[in-house]
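seq as requested:
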Amino acid sequence: MIELALILLLGSLAAWVVRLAPARAAETAERADGPARLLGLAVGFLGPGRAEWGRAMAAELAQVHGRLARWRFALGCAGGTMLVPPRRGESGRMVLVLVTAGAAGCAGLVCYGLARYPEIVAGPRTGLILAVFAAVLAGFTLAAATLARRGAAGFGLAAGLAVAVAWIIAGGLALSRGAAEPAFFCLLAVLPLAPLTAGAAAARRGRTGAEGRGGVLISAVVASLTLFAVLAAHALITARGPYDPSQVRDFHGSGMPSLAAYAVGDNLGTAMALMLLTFIMTAALGCTAATVAARVLRTTPAR
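struct tokens:
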């Protein structure tokens, strides 16, 4: 189930990023074929300061003939645009560095856990889970590189950290006091308010739904990486206990040689699942709030 959840996360990330391509991207396509549409989509994510690059590539594509040659040219240009970093001094550059470092840190925590408890590797479908998890981290980094040029990177970083803190505080309080207590169980119901607020604030800041949704997606990536890093670090620190009673009960039928290895593997799997939940909830609710807020702002006359 974990690998399926991670695949869904990767697919939803790609769908949201593609959905955010600016409308002007279609204007760069001289011919309505696949290579032109791909190039137009990639060019749409270039920052305003590099719009001339997009026009030059579109003009050059128009001179390329032959289906295979056009696809080679479009794929090369698309790959190049995805790797163009934000300009020096832009907040997007800092966000890209932090997201890359965060993804590397998450991968490092998992690698340390596997090296410290190699018995986890022998678990069923572990290889597939790790491969999909690595693809998700790469997808997060590529999405950050793509979206960081759109002007909402700094806000997305701050909002993502705020969402992650909300998850950590609310979840920690609810678990420490007992989920059966209504007062603390209600803390979990407050979690959707964080992405809803972030989406509305992003749209207000950018005045357009696309700008707001771009900031929300960056915040979803940042929140997911932050939450996973905290949970994975906690899993490794508490590997020797105390253990959850359900883990002690399930360990006896797991076939694992040690309770510590079982607890680390189980907690890392839970962290991956919560990373998925955090990203989906933040992106879905935040993008919805950004779209609604942008429409309200358009219909509200400026003072």
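Residues 259-299 form the longest helix (41 residues).
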